[in-house]
Structures are given as structure tokens and as C-alpha cells.
Amino acid sequence: METAGADMPIPVRISARHVHLCQRTIRALFGRDYQLQPEKALGQPGQFACRETVALVGPQGRIAHVKVLGPPRSEDQIEISRTDAIALGLDAPLKLSGDVRDTPGILLEGPAGRMYLDRGVLRALRHIHMSPADAARLGVHDRQVVQVAVKDGSRRMIFDDVVVRVAANFRLECHLDSDEGNAAGIDEGAVCWLVPHGP
Amino acid sequence: METAGADMPIPVRISARHVHLCQRTIRALFGRDYQLQPEKALGQPGQFACRETVALVGPQGRIAHVKVLGPPRSEDQIEISRTDAIALGLDAPLKLSGDVRDTPGILLEGPAGRMYLDRGVLRALRHIHMSPADAARLGVHDRQVVQVAVKDGSRRMIFDDVVVRVAANFRLECHLDSDEGNAAGIDEGAVCWLVPHGP
After folding, report:
1. Nearest Cα to Cα of residue B193 among B157, B144, B154
2. Can you tell me the mean pLDDT for B120-140?
3. Which of B147, B178, B183 sits opposite A180 (nearest CB)?
4. Phi, psi of B46 (to 5 degrees)
5. Quick one: residue A40, left, alpha or beta (phi over 0 = left, psi -120 to 50 = alpha)?
6. Residue of B125, B152, B155, B162 for testing the chain A interface, max A β-carbons within 10 Å
């Protein structure tokens, strides 16, 4: 029996800066025949955080210890916050994850080498992953743009223009970046609601 | 003739981390009989940014080159973002500016000395300064809690729980911290609107 409805809470994941790498880049940074070492499963099935980290080197600054996420992808993607972009001296555009057209490049440093990427640096547009069943319960559809509300004690913030992404293997999870999480005053374990429902 | 109404745009100021110091602390950090050097007038009459900077030293980190704002106050106040609080290793509570009760302390370093403050570190609650005339035009009153919307290209964010502060000498200005500005994707020169008005 389904009891959850359109007012059900949606778990929030705060995405700290991270990189997705292709095999060619993994080879350049970590060495020939290197395999990423999974460290922790992530919310979406098959996705994992790795033991490996890289350093990001931009025109104005360097950020070390940036987590690699797996599995390897067909294209490199460097997901940072606006605070990170300012520290690196880059202008990282807002993009749906996976869309690296018209994004700036960056130098990556790994333990076995450095590699300059032509493109791939972006700020991920906030979005909600969900299954078709969750979409039906919440009354929304793939690519729909919704508002979600989060609460920090008695203080509320509403994120407008949140993109719904529906796929059979998606687990219900709203992804915000670290600036959005810090501005809202929330951490891992927080939940959000579709507006006009709670909190 | 007044043409502006409740839909008038409100200038936004993004407050980067900064400190307000009392004379005793200025003496300890910059030397006996030191006078702050005004560098730039700020939006609110009589307030200015100084040439002087200090370093903040917390249990987990250090942040250098933090601007001192003037004029001197009767109590020290260290205004940081949540990103800064995490970097310093502090838990900075959300407070209305001026309310330093129950806030953590911090070590300050200046060119002439160091001083440990017992309290004073906070994240400033977002707020809007305005004159009584602007309050009348916008249809709000002192201490009212409102929603404001900001836009970054086509992407909108709504800050709920924004406190209105009315005084005869206040100039219309909405103050957000750097996390809020970065999450919303806005810079100096941005404007916001009271909800349910634009954008």
C-alpha cells in the first residue's frame, strides 16, 4: 500500500566539488592500466566515490583533494561551486550534468601526471532524481521544472527552477551544490519538499 | 511625484566576510592610538570599508585579509559565511547583526598583535535596510519578515525569512552573505524583488 503523496519529503544530497573522468584521463593522472578504487556507494545505483583525489589548477588558484567519482565516463566533467570557481579564477557555467558544451578547461594534477582538459568545468544545475513511481506520487514528470523548499531551524529557503529527472533506476534524491547547501544552512540528511507542500 | 510601488527593485549587497572592531581591539591589533583608515563608503550612511585587514584563526583553519569595516563599534563582531565557518572549524550561529550573545570566540591577528575574543562570530541573518518612505512604498514595516526573489539569468531563487529593518537614515539595500550570493549566482549590482512581485 502506498501512503506517500505529493507532500512526501525528498532526501537532499549536497554535492561537494568532484570530478568524473574518462579512461584516458585516469591513465594520464594515475598511470597506465590504473583502476579506480571504489570507497563508498552513492545514492544513485552504480555510482560510487573513489579513494582517488585530484588537484584542480585554475588561472588564480589551486584546490587539492578533490574526489573522483566512478564509474569512468566517456567525457571528463569537473563539478564545482561558484565559490570554487572564484577561488580558481574560472567562470563555470550552470549546466545540466553531462552537458559539457561551452565549458572552460582546467589543469588536473594526479599522483602520476598532469593533464590539461579543453573543457568540462561546470556548476551542476540543481535537480531531483526520481523513479517513475515517485514521479507519479509527486505529480511531476521528467524535465519538469519545480520549486523545492528547505528549512534550517525556522528559516526557509525556496529553490526555484529545479529540474526533475526521471529514470527507472533513479532513487529519489535532490542534488544541491555546496553553495546552495551552505546558503540554506543544511547538511547531509536534510530533506526538502515540493512547493506548495511543507515545510 | 512617486512612481515606484511595491514592485520596485531592491539593490542587493553581498556581504563578504568582515569584522567590526571596538577601540580596545583596534589598539591590540594595530597599535596604541591607531585610527582606522577609511577606504570606501558603503551603502548605509556613515559606514565605510577600511584599508586595514585582519586574519581570523579558528580551531581548524585561518583566513587572512579579512576587511575591517568602520566606524569602530562598542562590541567586536565577526561576520562570516557558513563556508568560512567550516574552513575555520567553528559553528557560527545565525544572528541579527548586533546580537553577539551566545556566539563563539575567535583569535584575531593584526600587524601589531593578536587578540582572542570571547565571543562575536556570527552569520548575519539576511535583511533589508530601508527608510520609512521606502517601507510605505513597499507596503512593509519594521521587523516584518518577507520573501525576496533574485534571478541569475533564467534561474530564480527565493529567500524566505528576510527581516525588514526600517530607520530614517537607512538606504534601501538587501544584505545577503557570500554563500547566499553564490548559491543564487548573483554579484554586486544585482537587484531583488519582494515576492509576489517580479522577477
Report:
1. B157
2. 95
3. B183
4. 85, -15
5. beta
6. B155
CATH 2.40.40 fits A126-194, yes or no: yes
**What chain A residue is nearest to B158 in terms of C-alpha separation?**
A158
For chain B, give every domain's residue range.
17-124, 126-194
Counting every residue, how long is chain B? Answer: 199
Task: Give the integer Cα–Cα distance in Å for A183 and B159.
Answer: 10
- Establish if A153 touches chain B: CB-CB under 8 angstroms: yes
pLDDT tier for residue B93 given thresholds of 50, 70 and 90: very high
CA torsion sign, A55 to A92 to B58 to A13?
negative
pLDDT of res. B198: 58
A16 and chain B in contact, CB less than 8 A: no
What gap in Å lies between CA B96 and CA A26, rounded to an integer?
48
Which of A94, A158, A182 lies nearest to residue B81, judging by beta carbons?
A182
Q: Tell me which chain B residue has its CA closest to the CA of residue A83.
A: B182
B16 to chain A: nearest residue by CA?
Answer: A83
The DSSP secondary structure of chain B, one letter per residue, reads -----TT--EEEEEE-SEEE--HHHHHHHH-TT----EEEE-SSTT-EEEEEEEEEE-SS-EEEEEEEEES--SS-EEE--HHHHHHHT--PPEE-TT--TT---EEEEETTEEEEESS-EEEEPPEEEE-HHHHHHHT--TT-EEEEEEEETTEEEEEEEEEEEE-TTPPPEEEEEHHHHHHHT--TT-EEEETTS--
Q: Across the interface, which of A81, A83, A157 has its CB nearest the CB of B159?
A: A157
A121-124/A106-110 β-pairing: unpaired
pTM across the whole model: 0.84
Contact, B160 vs A155, CB < 8 A?
A: yes
> What ipTM was assigned to the predicted interfaces of this complex?
0.75
